[in-house]
Amino acid sequence: MITTSGLTKVYRSRGREVTALDGVDLHVREGEVYGVIGQSGAGKSSLIRCVNLLERPTSGTVTVAGQDLTALAGRGPRAGKELRQARSRIGMVFQHFNLLSSRTVQDNVELPLEILGVSGKERSRKALALLDLVGLADKAKSYPAQLSGGQKQRVGIARALAGDPKVLLSDEATSALDPETTRSILQLLRDLNQQLGLTVLLITHEMDVVKSVCDSAALMEKGRIVESGTVSELLATPGSELAAALFPLSGERTGAERTVVDVTFHGEAATRPVISQLSRTYNIDISILGAAIDTVGGLQIGRMRIELPGRYEDNVVPIGFLREQGLQIDVVGQEAVLVKEGAK
Amino acid sequence: MTWSEMQPLLSQACSETFDMVLWSTLIAVVVGLPLGLLLVLTDRGGLLQNVVANKVIGQIVNVGRSLPFIILMVALMSFTRWVTGTTIGTAAAVVPLAIGGIPFFARLVETAVREVDGGLVEAVQSMGGNTWTIVRKVLVPESLPSLIASTTTTVIALIGYSAMAGTVGGGGLGDLAVRYGYQRFETELMWITVAILAVVISLIQFAGDFAARALHRRGGRSGPAPRLRFLKAAEPDPAEAGKAA
User: Fold this and answer.
1) How many C-beta atoms lie closer than 10 Å to residue B226's C-beta?
2) B interface toward A at CB cutoff 8 Å?
3) 8 Å CB contact of A145 and B238
4) Strand partners, A24
5) Distance between CA atoms of A240 and A222, rounded to whole angstroms?
6) Region A247-343: CATH code
7) How far, in Å, CA of A148 to CA of B120, rounded?
8) A77: which chain B residues are within 8 Å (Cβ-Cβ)?
9) The architecture CATH gives domain A2-241
10) Is this model's pTM higher than 0.90 or not?
11) What is the CATH number of domain B14-172?
């Protein structure tokens, strides 16, 4: 639905060059919620602004719904008619809501329809329907300043949906909100994604946002995408920073004669009660040091750190059993040991 | 000088001042508003970025602002004659007043429009709005309270300038005060004109502030206007509305 290839953005000011995007290839599938996470300055904002060409990429292409937007852009800094039409089919919500304080809530939602040239009657019908959808039907005549942050963002979302977009861009939409409100806004985005088949590209610096709504995620660092994939693909990737951050594990070995193992659950294997099977089959006591497990789409995914009695050598068979179950197993500290032995 | 002698002089002077200020303000607003918008739009990073045009407009505005009004009036004489066919009288005074008011108002417009949050412009761009849409739907409506305050300031400045219009026979209250009060020692008449000016200016300022605040309030932002609070009692308090939600 959204594809960027070789996207580069270089800002030049007073002879200095800052590379905000350094060859970004992003692929967002239709109907998914895709999260791009990174620290401030990683280039997330530039990326999302390049998708609807609010920022002109220095090089590379952006394709949204099969339309090459970079080809529509023309040379000048001003957006031509075709690009503006394409933008009207891409909704965008902002961190600071960006509602017009001089207009009522309803008039704010009508604004994109005014730009599209929709007649007055149709505009108000649609605006009220959208406000109903986001749960703010009773606030139509209020002004934005009379609303709470969460309500403002709901208006922002209603406004972004006015042009019947297939794609919604969310620029840190929950970063100015408290945790409770963040959850309700994310739930709304999730509902819209499912009800309307909306493809959502969101950028955020909060791991919780990715964890609670995203089907896929990408990690950005210094203008590049360092990791990307669906949440279970990321989990399956050994050493994935995103997986580690999404499902953080802690817990230290409790004694010398013990083996610590990280078990990653994803896919079908996660539905079976493997830990108790392991305990019964080999008659060993297993301690759980830490776990980070979520149910996503009816499947349990996540990671668990368990401790088995005895050294690694004593536990080769139980670990083999876990591997046979289709689980991904990382023996903590074992790699270092193997490397040492190899050196000898 | 008795009141019956003063009264026709005063009423004529008032209507002259009114004419001069009304027409010159209208022209200053009509020309100064687009000029001020252009100053913002053509600036570096603006929607119509054009560094050359920005410098040229900026320079014209600066020159217009830096000339003392009395010099501007004299310097513009031939232009005034070309426009109105004469260089003396109320109509002739409107020309330099308007020319003086345009850059004054344009700078105020520039400041007011710069205050508009860039995020709003970005939002409208993301909806597919063009520059004209952004000007009409964002920049002007969002800065309207400031634009009204700027108009008030311009009207008051033009009332001040119009006092010098006597130099070209434009008449008005300022001219009356100079000719009768200063040159003929009619101190009483002078104080009356001063009082009238003071009252008129206070009323204009009050009306301007009231209008600007009314618009601000509409936006729910409470302006620093405790003395006007009683007018607001019928409206729900935004703070409470927020709490209830």
Assistant:
1) 8
2) 47-49, 117, 119-120, 122-131, 133, 137-138, 141-142, 144, 215, 218-221, 236, 238, 241-242, 245
3) yes
4) A7
5) 17
6) 3.30.70.260
7) 18
8) 49
9) 3-Layer(aba) Sandwich (3.40)
10) no
11) 1.10.3720.10
- Summarised one tens digit per residue, pLDDT across range A241-282 is 888 888 888 878 777 788 888 888 876 767 778 888 888 988
Cα angle for residues A264, A265, A270 (degrees, 5° grid): 155
Q: Contact at 8 Å (CB) between A54 and A5?
A: no
Check A88 against B128: CB less than 8 A apart.
Answer: yes
B3-39 per-position pLDDT tens digit:
888 889 899 989 999 999 999 999 999 999 999 999 9
The number of C-alpha atoms within 13 Å of A242 and in the hemisphere containing its C-beta is 28
Classify the complex by whether its ipTM is higher than 0.90, answering yes or no: no
> A79-113 burial, b for 16+ CB within 10 Å, e for fewer?
beeebbebbbbbbbbbbbbbbbbbbbbbbbbbbbb
Nearest-angstrom CA–CA distance, A95 and A182: 11
Check if A321 contacts B (Cβ < 8 Å). no
User: Which residue do the tokens 């669906």 mark?
Assistant: A230
**What is the per-residue pLDDT across A294-317, written as a single tens digit (0 to 9) for each?**
776 566 778 889 998 888 888 888
Taking 50 as the threshold, does the pLDDT of residue A99 lie above it?
yes
Q: Do A78 and B47 touch (CB under 8 A)?
A: yes
pLDDT for B232 equals 42
C-alpha–C-alpha distance, residues A226 and A206, integer Å: 17
Domain boundaries, chain A: 2-241, 247-343
Residue ranges per structural domain of chain B: 14-172
Give the span between the Cα atoms of A163 and A158, in whole angstroms. 10
